[in-house]
Every structure is written in C-alpha cells, then in structure tokens.
C-alpha cells in the first residue's frame, strides 16, 4: 500500500507494519493507521473524485488502507443520502440541519462500512473464516458482506439482541452463538474462540482497519456538502469506533487540503449507559457502567475503543449529551414525522442529542449541524411500536371509521 505508512499504537507510539491481519499492540493499545498524505495529495483531487462513477465507499480508495489490486466488496456499501431538513431545523431552532441516513446501507446500518473493510482485508490475508462479537449490527453486517463474498462467519451476540438482527444473521447463513450474558461477556468468549481457531478478527476495537471503513461516512458527508464544513456532526456512541472513524475521516480531508477547518463532534449516549460521555464531563478517565438502555447497539458498558473515542471528542472541542430512553423514542417519532427517516433507537440517539442541546440552548440559531442516523428502524420493530403506538383497528365498516375518526379527534378534509 503506497498510501499507508504503518499502524501506530495510540498508547505507546510503537509502529507496526500494516499487514492485513494487523491487530493490537503488545502493550494492549489500539493501532491507528497512518497515511502518507503527501502521496495521497499527489494522487487525489476534488475534480478527479467528482468525475468518479463509483457510488460506494470504495470511491475513496486513495484514503483507504487496501492494496490497489484488492477488488471492491460485492454489496453496495456507503453513498447513503444526506438530506437537508429545513422543517426539522426550524422546529429545533437551528440555522441548517442535514440528516445522513446510514440505515440505507445493504444490511441497514453504518456497520456495513467496517464489515466491507473487514471482508476486503480478510481476502488480502487469504482468510476463509471471519468472526466477531457484536451487540447486533456489526454481526449482521459482517454476515451479509461475508456471505456476498463467499466467506464463512462465526458470530457471537448477546441474547438480548433484537429479533430483526438475529433474523438477518440466520438469513445470511452465519454460525450464530447467542451468549447468555452481557456484551462484555459475549466479547470475551469471542476473543477466546478467535484465539483458539485463528479466524480473521472483525472486532472493531482490535482490528485497526475497521474504523478506516467507518470514516467513509465523514468523507461522504463532506463531499455531499461540497466541502462546506458544518459547525457540528452528531453521532451515537457505544464502543467508540464510529465516532473515532468519523473524526479520522475529517482529519484526513483536512490533511490533504479538501476542507479548511474541522467541525466539532457531538457524542450522544444513553443516560443508562454513558461511560465515555461521563469521562469527558468529569475530565478524567472512563470506568465501566451498567448497560441500561433500550438502544441495544450502544448499550456498551465497557467501551472497546475508549482511547480513540475520547481523543476524538476532546481534539474536536466537541459536546457530549446523554439522553433518556424516552427522549430516544421521541426522536424516533420526530425523525419519522418530519423527515420520513426510520431509525432504530441507537440510530436516532444522535438526533435526540441534537434536540436536547437545542432545548438547553447549547446550540442554536447560528449553528449548522449534520446528524447521522446510524441504523434502520426495521431492525427493531418492537421498540418502534413502543415509541409510536398502535394503529386504529376497526372492521371494514364506514360507520365504524367515522366513529373512530370522531373518537380520535381526526377531522378529515
Ligand atoms: C454500533 C452502532 C453505534 C455505535 O458505534 P460504536 O462504534 O460502537 O461507538 C451506533 N449506532 C448503531 C445503529 C450501531 O450499530
Ligand atoms: Zn503499544
């Protein structure tokens, strides 16, 4: 890879050759992929990018840690829509607001970006089997992207994973182990199994290439905004790999001169599980917390990528905001009603955070904000019905329809 220098440990600074099956440093630290920005500048221009036909995350190859000969993965991952939402902006009191709907990825979450990268790197490593542990979306995205590429998967999920995500896993033909325990315990069993059988490791905080896949969400947002930098980008946070990837993408674009400043990050977590935001608020280090929220994808009491995530939020001068399950459900309804975007609970947590910051006056009428919806609501219909209610239910009878309208104070026409 001419564009990549090495993997650098975020703890001790040691550098490691960027081999395809690179994992963590001997000191336990997570690695960050370091690029040769001079080389990338010589290869990539905004004009060259604009002329490109590829409508997927692989349109940014010069900024990705893959060999030039590595084929793009089969499913169309990335290039999700960025909608400007003037009505929601007005309702919240923001100058401008955009929603990036990453629930439109092939397996319906942002995790597809990391899983496609895992599949590309597993192929480079000559691996036939990939494994991961996940709260659900990393699992379903890995199973789908691997199935499309003809690779086998072993997947560990906590037993609380929503049925929709488990249905995806079974449909994609993964070998699925539902662990009767927390995400922490699920992760631990997957680690032991990966050690034992030598599978390619798609655990996001261990494999440093995955957040490089996730960073493509930032590259797209900026290209879709014609390189005009918003004041804030809001996203939900669990392990911390996603927000770290988002920040990496922004810093890459800054380093190659495509953007002239950096936005601030908004890190949104659930009140019942916010170890990273708590560390920022308290100005100290993180420590474990219970996993007490309906937003299963961000119910992460022991975040696996705390170092990179905390660094990203701090470096950006970002804001942290914790939202209740009630506020998450309200945001689900609000996004659906004003934007026609259906997010899963963790998917809308960033937007719930934006709403809360607006109401508290911490952001407002002068600010431009991008809110990333990280996963699709169809993955977890039980919580959506919980948030938005049941429909009017009547027999096929006009009199009953009129009565129901009257009862529900619906005036037609
Ligand atoms: C995984 C996930 C997140 C958070 O990503 P982390 O890397 O764990 O911080 C947010 N939303 C959804 C829908 C996810 O699947
Ligand atoms: Zn180290």
Describe this structure in words.
By secondary structure, this protein is an alpha/beta fold. Helix content is 40%, strand content 15%. It has 16 helices and 13 strands. It has a six-stranded mixed β-sheet, with helices on both faces. It has a four-stranded parallel β-sheet with strand order 8-7-6-9, sandwiched between helices. A three-stranded antiparallel β-sheet has the order 2-1-3, with no helix packed on it. Bound molecules: pyridoxal-5'-phosphate and zinc ion (ZN). Pyridoxal-5'-phosphate binds next to helix 10 and helix 14.
Shape: globular
Number of helices: 16
Secondary-structure-based class equals: alpha/beta
Fraction in beta strands: 15-25%
CATH architecture of one domain: 3-Layer(aba) Sandwich
What composes the largest sheet? 6 strands, mixed
What's the CATH C level of one domain? Alpha Beta
Topology order in helix (H) and strand (E) letters: EEEHHEHEHEHEHEHEHHEHEHHEHHEHH
User: Total strand count, please?
Assistant: 13
Query: What ligands does this structure carry?
Result: pyridoxal-5'-phosphate, zinc ion
């Amino acid at each position: 890879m001419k564009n990549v220098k090495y993997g650098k440990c975020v703890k001790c600074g040691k550098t490691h050759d960027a081999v395809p099956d690179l994992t963590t440093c001997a000191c336990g630290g997570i690695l960050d992929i370091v690029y040769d920005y001079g080389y990338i500048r010589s290869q990539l221009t905004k004009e060259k990018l604009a002329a490109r036909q590829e409508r997927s995350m692989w349109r940014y190859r010069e900024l990705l840690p893959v060999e030039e000969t590595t084929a793009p993965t089969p499913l169309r991952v990335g290039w999700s829509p960025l909608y400007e939402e003037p009505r929601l902006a007005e309702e919240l009191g923001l100058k401008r607001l955009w929603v990036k709907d990453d629930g439109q990825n092939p397996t319906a979450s942002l995790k597809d970006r990391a899983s496609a990268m895992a599949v590309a790197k597993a192929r480079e490593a000559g691996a036939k089997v990939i494994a991961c542990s996940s709260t659900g979306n990393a699992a379903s995205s890995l199973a789908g992207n691997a199935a499309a590429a003809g690779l086998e998967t072993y997947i560990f999920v906590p037993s609380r994973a929503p049925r929709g995500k488990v249905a995806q896993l079974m449909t994609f033909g993964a070998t699925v182990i539902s662990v009767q325990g927390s995400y922490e315990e699920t992760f631990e069993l997957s680690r032991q199994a990966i050690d034992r059988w030598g599978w390619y490791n798609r655990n996001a905080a261990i494999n440093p290439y995955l957040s490089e896949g996730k960073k493509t969400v930032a590259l797209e947002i900026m290209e879709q905004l014609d390189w005009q930098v918003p004041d804030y980008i809001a996203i939900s946070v669990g392990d911390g790999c996603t927000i770290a990837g988002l920040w990496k993408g922004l810093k890459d674009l800054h380093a190659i001169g495509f953007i002239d400043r950096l936005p601030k990050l908004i890190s949104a977590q659930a009140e019942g599980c916010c170890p990273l935001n708590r560390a920022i608020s308290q100005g100290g280090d993180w420590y474990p917390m219970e996993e007490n929220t309906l937003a299963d994808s961000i119910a992460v009491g022991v975040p696996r990528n705390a170092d990179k995530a905390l660094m990203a939020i701090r470096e950006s001068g970002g804001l942290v905001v914790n939202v209740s399950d009630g506020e998450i459900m309200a945001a689900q309804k609000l996004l659906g009603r004003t934007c026609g975007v259906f997010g899963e609970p963790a998917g809308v947590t960033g937007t719930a955070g934006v709403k809360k910051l607006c109401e508290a006056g911490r952001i407002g009428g002068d600010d431009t904000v991008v809110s990333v919806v990280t996963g699709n609501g169809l993955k977890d219909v039980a919580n959506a019905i919980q948030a938005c209610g049941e429909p009017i239910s009547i027999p096929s009878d006009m009199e009953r329809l009129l009565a129901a309208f009257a009862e529900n104070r619906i005036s037609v026409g």
